[in-house]
Write a structure and sequence with these properties.
Helix content is 56%, strand content 13%. The chain has 14 helices and 9 strands. The strands form 2 sheets. It has a 6-stranded parallel β-sheet, with helices on both faces. Strands 7-8-9 form a 3-stranded mixed β-sheet. α9 packs parallel to α14 and α10 runs antiparallel to α11. The longest helix has 31 residues.
Length: 293
């Protein structure tokens, strides 16, 4: 199948490569053209604009923010202009509910479709096609793109026809992830301060009460001080926390822990840690406890 793909960062590159491995031919667009050229050697072409990438009729986006997604969708050379009638935009980015709703409405008014399909997983999961994907959008459009999404992930969950529902699941899921990392960070700082071997503590806890890969992966990163290269850098993590706070304010759902997490990220960034992974909450907890991080 001919597909457009926009956004070849840490996550997008792995997803695009897996679509190619599944036999699809991609028309690639990236702000930094060199990344598109490197992938196009496998099974793809390079688009000169987001509009050109959208011309096959199905286009995927994996971008860093509301502004980045809006920039490639709108305008004379944007996805909305290039996508043919009944075409489908599949957004895999984590963006706000407001932008999700606005772009879905704009595409619907133009006789086109917006499918939200944000993903859970780090770049290594994207490369291995092991992402968890939440999807929502017009039923016929979702049915058409589900086989494509299956090439990128190990599990797909359909949350209905409102794209904002998939976006809300992703935002709330990221909030849960961040609170887990903060809990790990504080607990590991506590046991270290008490003289307990943090590696032994982590092994015990993750083989008994907390067996999820999340605890093992992020806990090991904290114990070993592995914060770079970042799988998910602190500035992006702060962006996601702010999305959760905005979504909560919209419906009057207090998220007091989100306020704490936001401030922890702000403190970390004030120390010049913008190049570190969000697991660096462990470094922050250790330093605040008077430990060497």
């Amino acid at each position: 199948m001919e597909i457009g793909f926009i956004g070849l960062g840490n996550m997008g590159t792995g997803i695009a490569r897996n679509l190619m491995k599944a036999g699809h031919r991609l028309t690639l667009y990236n702000r930094t053209r060199e990344k598109a050229e490197a992938l196009a050697k496998d099974s793809g072409a390079i688009a000169e604009s987001p509009a050109d990438a959208a011309r096959p009729g199905i286009v995927f986006t994996m971008l860093a923010s509301d502004d980045a997604l809006t920039a490639v969708v709108e305008g004379d050379r944007g996805v909305l202009a290039g996508l043919p009638a009944d075409g489908i935009l599949v957004n895999m980015s984590t963006v706000s509910l407001a932008v999700t709703r606005r772009l879905a409405s704009a595409l619907h008014a133009a006789g086109k479709h917006f499918v939200a399909a944000p993903v859970f997983g780090r770049p290594d999961a994207a490369e291995a096609a092991k992402l968890f994907i939440t999807v929502a959008g017009p039923a016929q459009a979702v049915a058409k793109v589900e086989p494509l999404l299956a090439a990128a992930g190990q599990k797909l969950a359909n949350f209905g026809e409102d794209p904002a529902h998939a976006a809300a699941v992703k935002i709330a899921g990221n909030f849960m992830l961040q609170t887990a990392i903060e809990g790990l960070a504080e607990a590991l700082a506590l046991v270290r301060k008490q003289g307990v071997d943090p590696a032994q503590y982590l092994d015990f806890m993750t083989s008994s009460l907390f067996t999820a890969p999340l605890y093992k992966g992020y806990g090991s990163a904290i114990v070993e001080g592995r914060y770079e290269p970042p799988g998910f850098a602190l500035p992006l993590a702060l962006k996601d926390t702010r999305l959760a706070i905005a979504a909560a304010e919209e419906v009057g759902a207090p998220l007091p822990i989100a306020d704490v997490i936001r401030d922890r990220f702000l403190i970390a960034l004030s120390r010049g840690w913008d190049h570190l992974d969000m697991a660096a909450l462990g470094k922050l907890a250790a330093e605040n406890a008077g430990l060497k991080s």
